[in-house]
């Protein structure tokens, strides 16, 4: 598990969007629609594993629309087309696609169905690829469309039919983790999942999420960028070892021997036949994540279908002591890197001349110094001035701005270290600040502190807590159009279910869950503000029926942007205590000049 050399950076800056390619590709897809007698075709930003990051050959949404965001849906009809995106991408999407070809539509639970029923007529057929949609998605869509007499039809992927030189699936090696890092051996994990299968009376469990299969088998890989997983599909029997279906090139005697206690590796081409063999069996699928293609295969041979949540997802989100220790160690490594980076930025930014790419590269260099970095956990968001207001901004060679002294600088970044995953956002002053900037920053900080300090009853969900982080912005008639927090994996996906903090997340928060805490504020065309720490659910000392959060991230928050008069004594006490811990955690690991910077950056106010 060696990191890449500094000559081969984890993040690149090529411009992936090319709106000029959109119209001819849509025209080619429409020819496919005509030949298949379809009125429209669905192009989700998804692969068969439902991962946030997908292999190059599954970037169909980007191929068709030129939009490179991590979520979205395109609907291409014979005469019109729509690109459906959420609030993170309302600025980015129209900049990247051909808006004469694609109408930009705000995401809602029924956005796709609403657009189709508005633009199609009774008797029309809509095609979809069964590998890229879940049973729950299709059922909801069918219900809406059938009311208008519109039919959904499963077909081979029409984008693939027009995509010349489409990249092949990844075949990178599988590697195993030590039990000391995972906290539990794979055989014990398998036994616990099989016990849940007995309770459900399920003969087989089908796992399709890469984080689930990799956590269960104590393996990792490098099939996709930023998330250290090996792609494959698992069929878990109620008794015996798992069957893990992967690209044949991954199967070798060494890795098979290492995994022989818990799984047998099989070529992915044999997955469908394996499902067809389950004629008299009961098969457990998660209908919110499994490709409908797989469920339909089992259903077609008469298998009894059980639909319920993937049981690994909940087990994986409750970090065990070894995973927690690893995550804390990763956050400490990251805190050292961030201190080095922020002290450098403080010295260089006021001089002028720094570009957004310079800032990304310096931060990666600081993280590499630990010799523990395997990858970045997502592409660094490096937004200077107005680019900071683009929530998921990705700097490219074409968009690269020079940071002007006095502008706000927003950097959202993270690392995949050998022992855990990090995610942190800081917004920095680079010169004189305005009263408006300080007010907005302080309102965001107050929301982050409120969530950091809350004690909550067992059984509470992220939906119960989301407003705590928004309350101070709301009181000023302000808001942000993204969730307040997401789950974070342990050397897995930086965005992990099922828990999160948003008005739509109703999953119960449990001890050992690790989440982000990242309220923000964005003034289009001027600046963005976001402050993000990772927090972990732990028991509350106030009442055995209550829980609270422990903060895991320890990096200074820019004191130059704080309007102290807007803060309460309790908030100031929290901030001063937090900064004292920031100093104590890493000061002895820094050179004298960086240590002096840290001392100033964490001074009490």
From TrEMBL:
<keyword id="KW-0378">Hydrolase</keyword>
<protein>
    <submittedName>
        <fullName>Aminopeptidase P family protein</fullName>
    </submittedName>
</protein>
<dbReference type="Pfam" id="PF00557">
    <property type="entry name" value="Peptidase_M24"/>
</dbReference>
<dbReference type="InterPro" id="IPR036005">
    <property type="entry name" value="Creatinase/aminopeptidase-like"/>
</dbReference>
<feature type="domain" description="Peptidase M24">
    <location>
        <begin position="326"/>
        <end position="537"/>
    </location>
</feature>
<dbReference type="GO" id="GO:0004177">
    <property type="term" value="F:aminopeptidase activity"/>
</dbReference>
<dbReference type="InterPro" id="IPR050422">
    <property type="entry name" value="X-Pro_aminopeptidase_P"/>
</dbReference>
<comment type="similarity">
    <text>Belongs to the peptidase M24B family.</text>
</comment>
<dbReference type="InterPro" id="IPR000587">
    <property type="entry name" value="Creatinase_N"/>
</dbReference>
<dbReference type="InterPro" id="IPR033740">
    <property type="entry name" value="Pept_M24B"/>
</dbReference>
<dbReference type="InterPro" id="IPR000994">
    <property type="entry name" value="Pept_M24"/>
</dbReference>
<keyword id="KW-0645">Protease</keyword>
<dbReference type="Pfam" id="PF16188">
    <property type="entry name" value="Peptidase_M24_C"/>
</dbReference>
<dbReference type="InterPro" id="IPR032416">
    <property type="entry name" value="Peptidase_M24_C"/>
</dbReference>
<dbReference type="Pfam" id="PF01321">
    <property type="entry name" value="Creatinase_N"/>
</dbReference>
<dbReference type="Pfam" id="PF16189">
    <property type="entry name" value="Creatinase_N_2"/>
</dbReference>
<dbReference type="InterPro" id="IPR029149">
    <property type="entry name" value="Creatin/AminoP/Spt16_N"/>
</dbReference>
<feature type="domain" description="Peptidase M24 C-terminal">
    <location>
        <begin position="545"/>
        <end position="605"/>
    </location>
</feature>
<keyword id="KW-0479">Metal-binding</keyword>
<keyword id="KW-0031">Aminopeptidase</keyword>
<feature type="domain" description="Creatinase N-terminal">
    <location>
        <begin position="25"/>
        <end position="161"/>
    </location>
</feature>
